[in-house]
């Protein structure tokens, strides 16, 4: 048994483990500009935080009347994102410390993300987190992305852990909704603190309203350990 009893921990990737949203924004901005949609702003991008790239391009086609197909837009955006992700992604220091604490305690861990499998692999390898996070699930591998629970349920299956024994770390409202739908506890740290009052975050077992600024690896580990007793 691990230090936290029967608990397994599932991480969202973008905005939770790593500060990759600026890369997602730039890849999106470049793709949209190439298809005749200039002026895509960071404020526009915040509306897409927490949903998969596949879902994002589907929305773009409807919202902007793009002629390019979903697969074409997805491939373009992923290619641009990967170019940025390989060299410009950093892990949040406290989140890296948390992963190392969990690894030292033999706690099973997984990553469940809306990014492509290639992007997940590139980011984890580039940040060194791949050494501890070997179980990964992309929204591309399941029928539905967040807010559907599919990625989290598949992560639990691959870990061999019942959903009720999984704890999810999430920065976005769709991810918090997905964790709740999966029957998992959620530690929520909103990437956009102004969205902390979103109803999806109200379902979280622990809400750190200030996001990463409020996250401390040791405190969250102790919270989990106290709850496992």
TrEMBL record:
This is HAD family hydrolase. It comes from the Bacteria. NCBIfam families: HAD-SF-IA-v3 (TIGR01509). It holds the Pfam family Hydrolase. Transmembrane segments: none annotated. Coiled coil: none annotated. InterPro entries: HAD-like_sf, HAD-SF_hydro_IA, HAD_sf, PGP-like_dom2. Keywords: Hydrolase. PANTHER family: 2-DEOXYGLUCOSE-6-PHOSPHATE PHOSPHATASE 2, PSEUDOURIDINE-5'-PHOSPHATASE. GO terms for molecular function: hydrolase activity.
